[in-house]
Structure formats: C-alpha cells, structure tokens
Design a protein that fits this description.
The structure is a single chain. The chain has one domain: 3-Layer(aba) Sandwich (Rossmann fold). Helices cover 28% and strands 26% of the residues. It is built from six helices and twelve strands. The chain has helices at 43-59, 74-82, 100-118, 138-146, 201-209, 249-258; strands at 7-13, 15-17, 39-41, 61-69, 87-92, 123-127, 150-154, 156-159, 165-172, 175-182, 185-189, 213-216. Helix 2 (74-82) crosses helix 5. The model has no long low-confidence stretch (mean pLDDT 87).
C-alpha cells in the first residue's frame, strides 16, 4: 500500500448455521442436518466485513469478500455486498465442508489467482474463529502459506500514514497488546471491534444485480478425519412455584434453610 493509493482489503468469511438454531445431526452422525436450518455469516466475520468497509471509507481503495463453500454461500456474499463490500468471490466445493487444512489450501489458491492480476492485498481479514467449527486455525494456516505476519483476537486496526504498516490491538488480562505489522499482513478480527451496519434497500437491490465471481476449489484434501459428531446432553431447567402471597413465606424460609442461607 503506497501512500495515497488507498488500501486493498480481502475478507474471508464462512457460511454457518444461524446462532441459536436447534442443531440436529444426520443419521450417521457425520454432518449437521441442514434441512430446517437458516444460515448466516459467522459473527466475528461480520465485524471483519464492517472493518474492511470502514478502512476503505477512511483511506480509499477496495474491499473484496471471499468464501469457500457450497453454491448456496452466494447468499452470504451478497449480504456483504449489500452493506458496502466492493466485490465478492465464491470458491465452490463439492460434498461436505472441507476441514481446516483443505479450506486453507483452497483459500491460498484463490488468493493467489486474485493477486496474480492486481498484486497482493494489503490486509487479509479473517474472523477470530468460525461459529460452527471454532478451529482458530484457517487464518493462521493461510498466513503461513503466504509468508505474511498474522495476529488473532484483534479489537482495533489502524493503518499508518505512510501506508507501510498496520497497528493492531487485542485485549489481554492486564490491558491491551499492541502489534505493528508490515504490510501485507493477515489479521483475525474479534466480535466487538465495531458494530456492523445493516443493509439499506438500495444496497440490497445493488447486491442482487452484482456479479459474484466464481472459482473451483483447488488443492489437496485435508489430512483431518471426522469420526462422528455428538450433541451435548440437553440441560432441562424446572421451575417450582413456592406459593403466592403471604402463604409462600414458610416455603421460602424452608428453601433458604435447605440452601444454608438462613
């Protein structure tokens, strides 16, 4: 990034089940049963998209959103376009979600193709971790493969005036850790760095007409193997009404005695 040229930011996002949804597994426990699920972008990555848009608004340049996933992930890319991202790229895969190794290899291949035309992105942003797998590793794998510095857990990003470095902050037990990275660099953004904006009606209309570039995933399969998924035991909470009015007082006293609070 040269001073005055603006900043080129790439954001890598993932299509995940909507938070709070009731999760069911397939009969063989090898995947999530998706027929009754809604999908969205991981919350950390929503903040990463917003941060990219803000950086471009402040410094000029361009923002691109990239995902590796099924054709249906076009929906999440168009949402990013509706809130202000400049371009979108869908890297399609066949079969179940690839593991972290295969995802990183596909991303590296796609990023290489994009950068061969226009040069390296100044910043590549990831979410700190995805909302479904929570692996904390795809961004780090991509950064290592590209030979670029990387820091996760970021809650603040500032580009230096000369365009050669980025200052990134993350929370620590006793305050803030501050990192200065030479561009190009990779950052893992954490939810809370900003408050993502909502799409406007004109933004939604533009996103429906926008062209989403497509690539086919390249790279070897990952080396991780899923044995089976398991759902945690559902916690059931029971409510007991002790009584109403003054008649409940003896029951309250008995409960306090039972809990050792009286």
């Amino acid at each position: 990034m040269a001073a005055g040229d603006g900043v080129r930011v790439l954001v890598c996002v993932k299509r995940v089940p909507a938070p709070g949804a009731r999760i069911a597994l397939t009969a063989d426990r090898q995947d999530i049963d998706t027929k009754n699920l809604g999908f969205t972008t991981s919350p950390h990555e929503e903040c990463a998209v917003e941060e990219a848009i803000r950086l471009v608004e402040a410094h000029g340049g361009s923002s691109t959103v990239l995902t590796v996933g099924p054709a249906a992930a076009d929906e999440q890319l168009r949402y990013a376009l509706s809130v202000g991202a400049g371009a979108a790229v869908l890297v399609t895969t066949d079969g179940p979600d690839p593991d972290a190794q295969a995802t990183a290899r596909a991303l590296v291949g796609a990023i290489g193709a994009l950068e061969s035309d226009d040069g390296p992105f100044d910043l590549i942003l990831f979410g700190n971790e995805s909302a479904d797998a929570g692996g904390f590793q795809v961004g780090i794998r991509v950064a290592r493969a590209l030979g670029r510095p990387v820091v996760n857990g970021i809650k603040g990003i500032e580009l230096d005036g000369d365009g050669g470095q980025v200052t990134a902050r993350r929370e620590a037990a006793d305050g803030l850790e501050v990192y200065r990275l030479t561009l190009p660099a990779v950052l893992g953004v954490k939810e809370g760095i900003n408050l993502p904006r909502y799409p406007t009606l004109p933004g939604r209309l533009r996103s429906k007409k926008a062209e989403v570039a497509e690539q086919t995933a390249v790279g070897e399969p990952g080396g991780l193997h899923t044995l089976a998924f398991a759902l945690p035991v559902e916690q059931v909470t029971e409510t007991t009404i002790l009584g109403t009015g003054p008649e409940a007082a003896p029951a309250v006293v008995d409960l306090l005695l039972e809990l050792g609070l009286a």
